[in-house]
Amino acid sequence: MRAAPVVASEEKATHQLSTLRRFLQYLQPYRKEIPIALTLVLIGAATQAIGPFLLGWSIDHLIAQGNLQGLFLLLGLLALIYGFGIWAIRGQILRVGWIMQRLLAQLRQDIFTKIQSLPLSFFDRSEAGDLMSRLLNDVNTVNQTFGQTIAQMLGNIFSLIGIIIAMLSINLQLGLLSNLVVPLMIFTTSLFARWARAKFRTTRQTIGELSTKLEEDIGSVREAQAFNRVQMNIEEFEILNAANRDANVQAVAITAAFLPSIDFLNTLAIAGVLAYGGYLTVTGAATVGVVTSFLLYVQQFFRPIQILSQFYTQAQSAFAGLERIFLLLDEPFQLQDAPDAMQMPPIQGEVTFENVTFGYNPDQLVLKGVNLHAYPGQMVALVGPTGSGKTTIINLILRFYDVSSGAVKIDGVDVRKVTQASLRRQIGIVLQDNILFSGTVAENIAFGVPYATQADIEAAAQMANVHEFITSLPQGYTTQLGERGAPLSQGQRQLISIARAVLINPRILILDEATSSIDTRTEALVQTAIARLLQDRTSFVIAHRLSTVTQADQVLVIQQGQIVEQGTHTELIQQQGVYANLYALQLGAANKMEV
């Protein structure tokens, strides 16, 4: 019955070794720098190991003989040796730090690249705060553990080897006695490390949850105040914060108990060397110099062991962070280009859905046997209640997800047979709540075409009816915007997002109620800009206000993942079906508002 914990422990150790091995693979680009660093480490270790031997030798052969001149020469030699060692240690810290900081920078880059490349289905089940915690907090923990102490750890390993060799060479009996406590140290370190590993893994999880909560509450502070939820948010954050605090306190408690245990073993070894060394000296089996050298060596011997043991215990936090990082890096690309994927030819604008079935979860379908055919240049309106599948149709056109069955084709080409980049660069999208980024107005317009000229940017802005507004800003197109486009209004942000879509000159355009939530005057500018943008382009318009789609070439009424009605506005009104009822309800509500 007791075998299971041993097996579990072995599996954890194997997993941890695998994690470390994978982390060390990041050292491959620095193969030329590593031998230089190791050479400096060896020099530093050698200078530390030779000192006690020379001091002990000087007691027996210089001080005991009254040779002051020789003693001064030896002290000068020691000064040179230790000075050279200090130079080597400084060099190893700089060299190893140089390597580790570049390694960690590459690790951050890999995480960010992975996050940017993952399909939307991953983000449907992941929290932004937790991902930020892996990129920032977990990597920072690895940096604190490896980036700042790896050079010291390597130096202590070689120092320990040199000290062991020196001790056994000077006096075999005292050397073996000094090493009797090493198994106890290994057992103590392993025991504390096993406890610490679980606690530090908990700390990494709780800091991820805390980051998620922080990101959500900062982003929604306006809503929290408007709905009088500030106190509840504070209380919820306090609970998560307390959980993270308790997890860290427990981890620190283990570390705090570990160091005195190692100090006790160190003291025990010194007492043993002093007692047995004194006995050997009295009996003439050893000299005072030899015992003095051993006492110095024992102090040096346990210092690297203590540092290495402490490092190993604290490294559990870094291993917990690395585990979370590598789990993210190993996240499969569920939406990949086919090995033989071709570049999407210039799009003409024909879009077809052939008996498309799709579900975000395999057991819960959102679209059920959808068929549609949009001809080049047509405006297709998607109407229906929230959750009916309108946005899902748009996502499949952009290939943010792959269909469960059936096919989505553009100009007769299955979107799964072309590269995602070549497909999306020919499709423009204007959402109801477009995101602008910190940067200049020009950079936001050129978001999809980073190398666009100033003339192209201004032409797109003029077509989007936003050029005059931009030139009225203090710095014009170089005006810096804050997070999410602050301090622009919703309508101004919408016009800039339209200019962004104009600049990429898409053949297929997607609009998600682009005129909602803006004032009447700005709506007129947006409507004019959209009318220009729609010319000679195939467009899909998600419409909540049916008055905006009366000119659509096709209106698709979607309910529960199926197209229940299809036709022009006039045709659907004449059918007196679902669409006609929706239109009558909205028209009646609008008339009541006017009255």
Automatic annotation (TrEMBL):
SUPFAM superfamilies: ABC transporter transmembrane region, P-loop containing nucleoside triphosphate hydrolases. One of its GO terms (cellular component) is plasma membrane. It is a multi-pass membrane protein. Residues 36-317 form the ABC transmembrane type-1 domain. The chain crosses the membrane at residues 36-59, 71-89, 153-170, 176-196, 279-298. Coiled coil: none annotated. This is ABC transporter.
